[in-house]
Design a protein that fits this description.
rod-shaped; mainly alpha
């Protein structure tokens, strides 16, 4: 009888372990899917940020051209102002936006 009881206990313990293994596998699959979705979301965000960065680079190139023109105008204006005698009046340059 003790042999039958120990066999039943072993079978029951094995069944309980199998149930826990199945439950663990289910949670592992859920966690994997969640991580996969998060990685996909991060990839999408990186794509958006990359596109924004490329657009910002283009804007910076255009802005650099404008600033170079403004600097040249200021140098020319400064050179003209120092070449003419000072009449005591102040000439203001228009504000750029």
């Amino acid at each position: 009888m003790s042999s039958d009881l120990s066999g039943e206990i072993t079978a029951l313990a094995t069944a309980v372990l199998a149930v826990f293994a199945i439950v663990t596998a289910v949670y592992a699959v859920r966690a994997f899917r969640k991580q996969s979705q998060e990685i996909s979301d991060q990839a999408s965000m990186l794509k958006v940020q990359s596109d924004q960065l490329e657009e910002q680079r283009k804007i910076n190139v255009e802005q650099t051209k404008v600033l170079e023109l403004q600097a040249a105008e200021l140098r020319e204006s400064s050179a003209n102002a120092s070449a003419t005698p000072n009449s005591g009046t102040v000439t203001r340059l228009p504000a750029s936006s």
